[in-house]
Structures are given as C-alpha cells and as structure tokens.
C-alpha cells in the first residue's frame, strides 16, 4: 500500500459535542456516587413509609395462609371477617380481631371456676378431717393440711416410728386403721410419701441412707392402708428423704416436723382423671 492509497481512505471522527456530553455524564455519575456515600438510613422513617405502603396496597392480617378467605361484603371478600364501614376515602380498610379469643377466655374462666370449686371442697374436707381426728391432732401424732385442691393427712414421727426405724409403733396402728377405713371409701388416687430430716443415718445401721428409710416408712404405712381395704390400684408410694422439708432443719423441733409420712388424696381424682367428692358425705369415723 502506497501513500496515494492511504490518502484515499475515508476518515471518521466524532462530532465535537459528543466529547462534552460524555464528560457531563461522567461528572453526573461521580456526583450521585458522592451523594450515595454521604446518605444515611433513618429506620423510623423507613418503618413509617413501609406502614404507609402496607395500608395503600393491602390489609395485613395475622391469619395463616391455609385459612379460606372470609368476607362480609363484596369489597372485603378477600380479607378476614369484619363489619364493612362505608367511607368517602378511595380506599378499603378493615379492623381484624382474633376469632378464637372469646372461646379461649370462656375456657379459661371455666377452668378458674373449677379450680376454685376444688379448693373450696378441699377446705371443707380438711375441716371435717380435723374434727374426725381431733384426739390424734391434740396428741401431736397427726396434722391435717390443705395443699391446693388436695388434702394431706400428715403422720408425724412421734409415737409412730422409733428413731432410724420403719417399724410402726403399736400406738399408731389404731389411727392408721381409722385413716384406712376412711380412704377405702374414697374414689380418688392416694399417695403415701415418706420424708426425713437432714441428719444422715449412721453407718452400719439397717438402712444405708435417708432415701431407704423414707421409702420404707412410706411402705409400712401403705401396708396398713391396704389391710384396711384400700384398692392397690389407687395407691402410689414414694420416698423423698430430706428433699421436701416442711420447715427449715435448723432446730430439733423443726426436724421433728420434717420427719413424717404424708397421705395425700387428690380431692377425688380417680384413675381416669375424673373429679368427685373425696370424703364420704356421711363419714363420721
């Protein structure tokens, strides 16, 4: 290719204004990048803007997506049920409520009334038991107490068990026979639980620990109740050692109160979970 052929080639160049336009675009891009780098997000304003958009484009409900649409009017048939209110504004708004709330409140109220009735029945039963076992209570061998909806006959260690032994004293057998005849006529579940103080058993004795002693004492009382005619299916026996003291083990008198066997009947709750009166209406034993 010679010089004549090079001169013959056409030349192409951009118009002068394009350079100025490209320069302006680069400056605008730099300007917006700087504006973005100096900008800050305001969370409060963002939440307000999001809420406004939600109200403008739809009503947010708290029903699950599997629920069928429920509407009370043609305008609100895609929303949860509510009373449509006519408005001059060019928008549809609806106030939703939890349709299950009233049912839950009613069930809770019924349960509270049931518990109150059970506690009142337990209080009456405890009063009747105190009258029936007045002599044993005065002698310091029994205590009658209410524990919520349950009634507890508390057999103290005095004249009941020798120290460190699970063999019942003969003087306690009459009271236990009286208790056995009483609970045999009941329909509720019976729990016999043994408890001791926090004084450890000396080594070399019949029982290795307070756990064995408390369980053995509870079993001794349970056998007397069974001999009085109690249905074994209604009976549960447990030993708790010193894990459930009634009072602090800080004195000899308090430790004596903690050495006990509790006979608890659950206010007439039978093996099927049904409730009935725990004491026979005319029981006078």
Number of helices: 8
**Quick one: how many beta strands?**
5
State mean pLDDT (0 to 100 scale): 76
Structural class: alpha+beta
Cα distance, first to last residue?
A: 136 Å
The fold-level CATH name of one domain is: 60s Ribosomal Protein L30, Chain: A
| Largest sheet, spatial ordering of strands | 1-2-5-3-4
Low-confidence stretches: 72-77, 268-278, 280-285
Task: State the shape.
Answer: elongated
Largest sheet: 5 strands, mixed
Specify the CATH architecture of one domain.
2-Layer Sandwich
Instruction: State the helical fraction.
Output: 40-55%
CATH homologous superfamily classification of one domain? OmpA-like domain
Strand residues, percent: 5-15%
Order of helices and strands: HHHHHEEHEHEHE
Would you state the CATH class of one domain? Alpha Beta
Q: State Rg.
A: 41 Å
């Amino acid at each position: 290719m010679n010089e004549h052929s090079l001169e013959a080639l056409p030349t192409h160049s951009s118009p002068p204004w394009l350079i100025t336009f490209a320069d302006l675009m680069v400056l605008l891009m730099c300007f917006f990048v700087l504006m973005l780098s100096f900008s800050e997000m305001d969370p409060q304003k963002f939440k307000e803007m999001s809420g406004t958009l939600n109200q403008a484009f739809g009503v947010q409900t708290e029903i699950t997506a599997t629920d069928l649409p429920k509407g009370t009017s043609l305008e609100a048939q895609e929303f949860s049920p509510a009373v449509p209110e006519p408005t001059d504004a060019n928008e549809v708004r609806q106030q939703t409520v939890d349709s299950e709330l009233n049912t839950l409140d009613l069930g809770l109220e019924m349960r509270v009334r049931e518990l109150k009735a059970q506690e009142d029945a337990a209080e009456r039963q405890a009063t009747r038991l105190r009258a029936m076992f007045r002599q044993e209570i005065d002698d310091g061998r029994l205590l009658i107490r209410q524990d919520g909806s349950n009634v507890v006959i508390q057999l103290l260690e005095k004249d009941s068990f020798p120290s460190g032994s699970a063999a019942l004293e003969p003087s306690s057998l009459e009271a236990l026979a009286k208790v056995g005849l009483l609970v045999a006529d009941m329909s509720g579940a019976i729990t016999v639980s043994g408890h001791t103080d926090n004084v450890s058993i000396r080594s070399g004795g019949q029982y290795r620990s307070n756990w064995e002693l408390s369980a053995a004492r509870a079993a001794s009382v349970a056998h007397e109740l069974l001999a009085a005619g109690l249905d074994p299916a209604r009976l549960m026996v447990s030993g708790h050692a010193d894990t459930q003291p009634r009072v602090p083990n800080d004195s000899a008198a308090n430790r004596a109160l903690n050495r006990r066997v509790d006979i608890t009947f659950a206010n007439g709750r039978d093996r099927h979970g049904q409730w009935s009166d725990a004491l026979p209406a005319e029981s006078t034993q």
